[in-house]
Design brief:
The complex is a heterodimer of chains A (about 350) and B (about 300). Chain A is α+β, with helices and mostly antiparallel strands and about 350 residues long. Chain A is built from 10 helices and 18 strands. The interface between A and B is medium-sized, with 25 and 19 residues.
Chain lengths: ~350, ~300
């Protein structure tokens, strides 16, 4: 069975990669659909980059199979896989100019020079770098190198494009701009993108689906809103955004079960002691221990009667820094809707 | 007081730079370029054939002598040897340097680099004499060759006109083997350094874009390692051009440049001709560097 268009773009079948004693990737099952923008999110050493490298062919699974549109590619060398990569350090060839870099994939396939030039021009237009063909990589800025790396990877019309933390080296403004642009380019070319990142905000902004990696395993796969609003484990709740994890006695008193749950800081309302909780609301009393003014919003650290610390974030809609900072030491009544909690087990 | 001195220098960075650079610059100018210039000048003197006394008058006679048939042959023979030694050293060094730079584990890399440089810790003379014994007619190498019943092949090789001889140690072939051995570290280290600076991701990118290993080698590895090959070849080429110990110890009676210079200024007492001969390697090296620059060897520096 060669390329089957109805098969998933990528399928991992119990894939493991061990480096000696270390299980970098441990029995991972995964499916990425055709045309999807799929992110692999996780801290460094969680196995996400190893998974990407195994799809590209730079690394081989210790056990398990990797399928690309139904074809088993587990033991094919990189140059026989119709998959291209945008590297973290861009990996542009320093001795070639932009045109030669982008045309490289066609050059090694012996495509005629005239045709190569035509395709390079199309690619330069796609990444908005027309007129840069003659420059050397050393004469480009970080963002421009990024675009050249993207054009070079896309010129082969790969079935799947792999991106290994491609925005990591850019400054914040440029990174946000490239996020939007990458997404737009993906829509235009319609290629499956697999995007590796440790930046949860980036993953949430760009992805159709996210796989959260931890210690060689996938903790959760789902849409950005799934991952954020219904984290399946305490690791996901803590890694994607910030979260309050509440367990034990208070959990039992407020929810009727000792199972740990997570509640996002922005879902908690700070009210006065005279407030009576409406139906469906859970309430707790506490004292404001610390206030951090962050301009757009304020972060409060509140110690509940039971001695548990909760982080609460409120937008500064009407309050000024004077108002919020003077709240330190006040007794408050916290409340949140029972639907906003997510059980994370443990 | 100390404060005032440091402030004084702080405010005059150019003075500090001049003070630091003056000694090495003076050394370069006086000792290094000065002696080179002195060689050039000495070549314009001549020797009185009858008395053997140096005549300190400008003449082109000595430089003309360099171009007589005997000396021309010496220069050609030496340059050919230097070229062949350089090419063979590069061919041996490249795979080894590539392995050290790109595949060896950090531990193994340290050991391999020590292994490459360890010969440089012992005296060059000792090593040349050791090779003389190894290559001798009754030496260990012929013993080995005999063991594999290849004596016939060796005799055929030694029977080749021009490069053969009565034994390996008395033939240009033996000289060539020792030259290749002696200068090999000077070729391995620059190539290894150049390859070390090529990020692994470039090789992965090439393969990722569809290049087979042989294509990656031609289009990425070789161009990026080329400055290292040129740096190494400058060592092997110029060291072979100027060496006189190996031609003195091994090989036949045919002269090499270094040997000729040695005998002209020593037994011959003809310092002007020795000086003029020395300019031969200098001119060849300048031409060599110009060609290397043309090929883009220094673009990355």
């Amino acid at each position: 069975m060669m390329n089957n268009p109805s098969a998933p773009a990528i399928r991992f079948d119990k894939v493991s990669r061990h480096f000696g004693e270390v299980k970098a990737v441990d029995l991972v099952d995964l499916e990425v659909g055709d045309g999807e923008f799929f992110s692999m999110l996780g801290p460094s050493g969680s196995g996400k980059t190893t998974c990407l490298r195994m799809i590209a062919g730079f690394d081989r699974p210790t056990s398990g199979k990797i399928h690309l549109y139904g074809q088993d590619v587990s033991s094919l060398p990189p140059y026989e896989r119709n998959v291209n990569t945008v590297f973290q350090d861009y990996a542009l060839f320093p001795h070639m100019n932009v045109e030669a870099n982008i045309a490289y994939g066609l050059m090694v396939k012996n495509v005629a020079r005239q045709e190569r030039i035509k395709h390079v021009e199309e690619m330069l237009e796609l990444v908005q770098l027309s007129g840069f063909a003659g420059r050397k990589p050393s004469q480009l800025s970080g963002g421009q190198r990024q675009r050249v790396a993207l054009a070079r990877a896309l010129i082969n019309h790969p079935k799947v494009l792999l991106l290994d933390e491609p925005l990591g080296a850019l400054d914040l403004k440029l990174r946000q701009q490239m996020q939007i642009e990458l997404k737009a380019i993906q829509k235009r070319v319609g290629i499956t993108f697999i995007f590796v990142t440790h930046d949860q905000e980036e993953a949430i902004t760009m992805s159709d689906r996210i796989a959260v990696f931890n210690q060689g395993k996938i903790e959760q796969i789902g849409s950005p809103s799934d991952i954020y609003e219904r984290p399946a484990s305490s690791f996901v709740a803590g890694f994607v955004g910030t979260s309050n994890l509440v367990g034990g006695e208070i959990a039992k008193r407020t929810t009727g079960s000792e199972q740990t749950f997570s509640i996002r800081p922005e879902k908690i309302h700070i009210g006065s002691m005279s407030d009576n909780p409406a139906s469906g609301m859970i309430s707790l009393d506490g004292v404001i221990r610390d206030v951090i003014y962050l301009g757009l919003f304020t972060r409060y650290l509140i110690e509940t009667e039971d001695g548990v610390d909760l982080v609460v974030v409120e937008q500064n809609l009407k309050s000024t820094s004077m108002d919020v900072l003077s709240a330190k030491g006040h007794k408050v009544r916290l409340s949140w809707h029972q639907d906003h909690i997510s059980r994370v087990g443990g | 007081m100390l404060n005032r001195i440091s402030t004084y220098f702080y405010q005059r960075p150019k003075l500090v730079l001049a003070l630091f650079l003056a000694p090495p610059m003076l050394y370069m100018l006086v000792v290094y370029l000065g002696s080179l210039f002195s060689l050039l000048i000495n070549g314009f003197y001549s020797i009185d054939d009858f008395t053997g006394i140096i005549v300190r008058e400008f003449t082109m006679r000595t430089y003309t002598q360099v171009f007589n048939i005997t000396n021309r042959e010496i220069v050609f023979r030496t340059a050919t040897m230097a070229l062949v030694v350089t090419i063979v050293d590069a061919l041996i060094a490249f795979p080894l340097a590539y392995y050290i730079a790109k595949f060896a584990s950090p531990r193994l890399k340290t050991w391999l680099l020590i292994a490459v440089t360890i010969p440089l810790w012992s005296s060059y003379l000792v090593r040349v004499y050791a090779w003389k014994l190894i290559l001798a007619k009754e030496g260990i190498l012929s013993w080995f060759i005999n063991l594999f019943n290849l004596t016939g092949a060796l005799e055929w090789l030694l029977g080749l006109p021009g490069i053969g001889g009565s034994s390996l140690s008395l033939s240009p072939i033996g000289m060539f083997i020792v030259f290749v051995y002696i200068w090999l570290p000077y070729m391995i280290i620059p190539i290894q350094t150049a390859l070390e600076r090529v990020p692994g991701s470039l090789l992965e990118a090439s393969s990722d874009l569809g290049a087979r290993p042989s294509q990656t080698f031609r289009t990425v590895i070789l161009p990026l390692a080329f400055p290292g090959v040129v740096a190494g070849s400058i060592f092997t080429f110029s060291l072979t051009l100027g060496d006189f110990i190996i031609p003195l110890t091994l090989g036949n009676s045919k002269f090499f440049i270094g040997q000729a210079v040695y005998s002209y200024q020593g037994t011959g007492g003809n310092i002007p001709l020795a000086a003029a001969m020395t300019m031969g390697p200098v001119v060849i090296m300048v031409l060599y560097l110009l060609i290397a620059r043309r090929l883009g060897a220094f673009d990355a520096i």
